[in-house]
Amino acid sequence: MKTAKKILVVSFQSLTANSGAGMARLGYYLSEVLDKKGILENFIVYSKGKFTTTFKSSPVSYWSRHILFVLNKLDKSFHFSPHKFRYVQEIIFDILCVSRITKDTGILFVTQPYLPRTFRKAKKMGIEIIFIPANPEENYICHIVTEEKSKLKLSGDDAYTYPKRISLFNQSVNYIDKIIGTYPTVYETYRTSNYKGEVIKMIGHLKPDFKPLTILSKEPAKGTFIVGYLAHTVALKGLQYIMQAWEQLVNEHPDYDIKLIIAGKIDAGISAYIHNKFGSLEKVEIIGRVPDVGDFFKQLHLFVVPSLIDGGPYTALEAAHYAVPVLITENCGSAELLSRNESGCMIVPIRNAESIKNSIAWAYNNREASAKMGMNAKYNLDSYRMDELITDVANYLEGHLNKINTK
Predict the structure, then answer these.
(1) For residue 277, how many other CB atoms are within 10 A of its CB?
(2) Which residues lie below 8 Å from residue 132, measured CB to CB, with a gap of 6+?
(3) Of the four, 204, 241, 247, 270, which is 20 to 30 A from 73 by CA?
(4) pTM for the predicted model, two decimal places
(5) Residue 220 lies inside a defined structural domain of this protein
(6) Residue 5: closest CA among 406, 289, 328
């Protein structure tokens, strides 16, 4: 009698105490459901440490934790570029992961694509490869970032434009049979890319593990109207367009009692650009790292996410958690969740300072409606059930596995 094949879930990140880091979080919850269905082969992560799971899970190798330790030690001494350091880790993970592909695997389900060696072995063994991305299609991101850096006269590679990493992606994606797009931006960029496989639309969001917070009502802003921005800022995050919008706003409305707070690390090139072009801009405070995210959001009356492209920016959901209305670009996947029901956000085109300026002015002059929008954002976030996405993905995989096992 033929042994039924199962699903091998692979995530580049590591386990945490009760979930996983990054996309390993999706892998964790999905593996839990697949295990209950009796169709999980294993959940493979980079490092597992002391954490246990109710289902079968393993580090990619006994040595992976030690390898990461050595790599981190070397990084502290030599200060590698983050994108090159990540690239090396991905190459090592792929090499280690090859041995995890066995004859018992029916579907290889991955949350990151940089696995050409692993995929090559899987294809030789007739194993179906299904990928669920966190980010939009890599070549699309590279193109839009390259364009923006040219506009800003910025040089040098980063995680989005590093040629070796883009090449690794393009080698890998050709082996993938199906891609599940959960964010609208992810689905559309893969659907319109050169990828030849099937792109499946299954809209859903990774919801952060927020501590429960009850907010029954939100008072309209009184006094100074505070607008916030928080990100590890690179060209892709669009801070330059907030600054352009803000310059227009304070010049056109010098009487506005308003303040912009910019938080988070800013990469050197963007920092120099902002300082040179907007260094004398009034009513702006750049505060760097935020020690308490909750305190940061509690003071805001509007939060701006001006990214040129983004899968599902958590900061937008963090703002919603604190009932802060969100001004977000149409290329951010989180806009789909926040705009459900009565909308909790204003959606603007990318690279459009005029639209950002007008939206901020509207929020300033319509404080009661803006506060209600913040409550809408919180309702849309709180009422969303991530487990429905996990169930949808698990059911799809189960149905597809059944077809494989009955061949």
Answers:
(1) 14
(2) 23, 26, 109, 110, 111, 179, 180, 182, 393
(3) 270
(4) 0.94
(5) no
(6) 406
